[in-house]
Write a structure and sequence with these properties.
alpha+beta; 5-stranded antiparallel β-sheet; binds adenosine-5'-triphosphate; binds magnesium ion
């Protein structure tokens, strides 16, 4: 790792001000990151540009296995935050971070991923944000957590929506990106269905979308790679109607081969150590190997994928 060790910056966390030392500067796609050492936090290394975000207001708990929370940060924006120690498993935060960084780097519409500081005083004052289990409530640790910029508004008619009507599939703008995301998910061995948030497009007639939830990419929370053909498709398979085209699939594969290696090789040095439990370099090696084999991996899924996509078209005709 390159260490510049020159600049100092001040954390903008209103509760726990402290100094940090800039170790290196990185940029991944449109995300600019600096690796820093923060003095008050046991000399751990964190990402600088995103450390300046702090949760200031708890809005509500979100549904789902990771027990994420919706918070407002000191930039005024809202984020769905997955916290260290969440019940889904050890590598959820690093998977989210990798998925957002890689998705953004290849130009797919993923939500912006940020690192968010949550303080002790915030957590002490908001027991509703704590993890819940049969044995009671457990307070998450203060520190750095992963936030996905909220799509839409937290309240009212623009509340985010994961559902859409089948009859409106043709109104989804840039629907071909679902095929691109599917190819990326095959590469990443995504162990869950692909999720997206839909919202009205600017023209009021079309629908825009953003991909969310990358926690089960990269072999899932334990980084165990198991092929499951068609398993990473969006649950509403009509989204893929008439999208499959061998030439377009090949061009996605070439695009990923050109764009993924750079971001993949830069990430290990900048993921906070508490966000994973496993051999990160081995994960990168596995993913690099899968990129070389991507045509073969996609071909192994192609029959299942084509069948599923055809079936959805046929159902619609019935
Ligand atoms: N960036 C975002 N903008 C709007 N809503 C979001 C965003 N990220 C997540 N959500 C919503 O937050 C909830 C939890 O999201 P997510 O699926 O990532 O968590 P999860 O714990 O993995 O849930 P599940 O186990 O149901 O998959 C969902 O209702 C999802 O629609
Ligand atoms: Mg989910």
């Amino acid at each position: 790792m390159r260490i510049e060790n020159t600049k100092k910056c001040l954390l903008r966390n209103p509760h726990e001000l402290g100094t940090c030392r800039l170790l290196s500067n990185e940029s991944i796609g449109r995300i600019s990151l600096g690796l820093v050492e923060i003095n008050p936090f046991h000399m751990e290394e964190y990402l600088c540009s995103t450390v300046s975000l702090s949760a200031v207001k708890f809005v509500r708990k979100m549904k789902g296995g990771s027990q994420s929370i919706l918070v407002q940060c000191d930039d005024g924006r809202f984020y769905v935050v997955k916290m260290i120690g969440n019940p889904q498993g050890a590598n959820i935060l690093s998977n989210e971070f990798l998925g957002s960084a890689i998705g953004a780097a290849v130009g797919l519409p993923v939500t912006e991923g940020r690192i968010i500081h949550i303080s002790n005083s915030f957590l002490d004052g908001e027991p509703e944000a704590w993890f819940e289990s049969q044995s009671g409530r457990r307070r998450p640790d203060a520190g750095l957590h992963f936030g996905s910029l909220l799509v839409g508004q937290p309240f009212g008619s623009e509340r985010p929506n994961e559902y859409f009507s089948r009859s409106k599939v043709s109104t989804i703008a840039n629907r071909n990106r679902f095929l691109g995301m599917y190819i990326l998910d095959i590469w990443a061995n995504h162990q869950d269905n692909r999720q997206a948030i839909f919202l009205p497009g600017v023209d009021g007639r079309s629908q825009a979308f953003f991909f969310i939830d990358h926690g089960h990419m990269f072999g899932g929370p334990n980084w165990i790679f198991q092929e499951r053909p068609g398993g990473a498709l969006h649950l509403e398979s009509s989204i893929y109607d008439s999208l499959w085209n061998d030439d377009i699939v090949s061009s996605w594969i070439s695009h990923f081969r050109k764009t993924v290696p750079e971001v993949l090789n830069r990430i290990p040095s900048i993921i906070p150590a508490r966000w994973y439990n496993g051999n990160l370099q081995r994960l990168v090696d596995t993913l690099t190997h899968r990129l070389a084999r991507l045509t073969e991996l996609v071909e192994a899924e192609a029959t299942t994928s084509r069948l599923l996509m055809q079936r959805s078209s046929e159902n619609e005709k019935m």
